[in-house]
Amino acid sequence: MPQSVKRSPCTRPICPADLPGKPIARYLLKVTEQQPYQVLQSHPQFEVRSYPAHLVAEVDVQAPFEEAGNAAFSTLLGYITGRNQARQSIAMTAPVLQGPGQKIAMTAPVVQAEQPTGMQTVAFVLPADLTPESAPVPTDPRVRIRVVPAGRAAAVRYSGRWSQASYERHCTELLSALVAHGYQPIGQPRFARFDPPFKPWFLRRNEVVIDLA
């Protein structure tokens, strides 16, 4: 049975050298809403959560793991600050997500994993009150609006720097724990970042999240 209801934001790493003037910092300073989720089960190493259906605005970039966030943010910020057919500003919402580039239909947070091509997908989760019909249409053809269906996912939380090595270590530990507890992970893991780049690294909240069958 559900134990509690929490709200979570997910994001994608940026180099610790990034400063408040960077697009990611301006975005995270203005976050007014966080994506909700429900905790279904708690384990020592991870949580099992239920995420509602939601929309994301996403863009693909050809960039390494630790550079893709900044490479994509100006494009996504443009969309939510009025570069759309309705010229409508959209409330700042966490999470921000990044995952491997992939060909998808035009209709999740997104996953974080390196593809052989080096393509990464960075996404903003849109406010919960937006629907596929009411979400402004992007004027930039690089931006996609995508529906992510409701589903279950496992998440592990950790603090520290936004390095690829740290992400991969926690990802490996999460996958091992899931197998040990009899869960079946599906798809690619995603990296979740909650904080702006100028927050001390030891206070940051990071997560690895992966969908479950």
Tag the structure with descriptive keywords.
213 residues; alpha+beta; Multidrug-efflux Transporter 1 Regulator Bmrr, Chain A; eleven-stranded mixed beta sheet; 3 helices; 11 strands; disordered N terminus
Would you mind describing this structure in some detail?
This protein is of the alpha+beta class. It has a single domain, classed as Regulatory factor, effector binding domain (Multidrug-efflux Transporter 1 Regulator Bmrr, Chain A, Alpha-Beta Barrel), CATH 3.20.80. Helix content is about 15%, strand content about 35%. The chain contains 3 helices and 11 strands. The protein has helices spanning about 25-30, 70-80, 165-180, and strands at about 5-10, 35-40, 45-50, 55-60, 95, 95-100, 120-125, 145-150, 150-160, 185-195, 205-210. Strands 1, 2, 3, 4, 5, 6, 7, 8, 9, 10 and 11 form an 11-stranded mixed beta sheet that branches. Strand 2 (about 35-40) and strand 3 (about 45-50) form a beta hairpin. The longest helix is centred in the C-terminal third of the chain and has 17 residues, at about 165-180. The protein is globular and about 50 Å long. The chain starts with a strand and ends with a strand.
Q: How many extended strands? A: 11
Counting structural domains, the number is 1
Query: Which H/E pattern describes the elements?
Result: EHEEEHEEEEEHEE
Radius of gyration: 16 Å
Number of helices: 3
- Per CATH, the architecture is Alpha-Beta Barrel
Strand content: 25-35%
Helix fraction, binned, reads 10-25%
**So what's the overall shape?**
globular
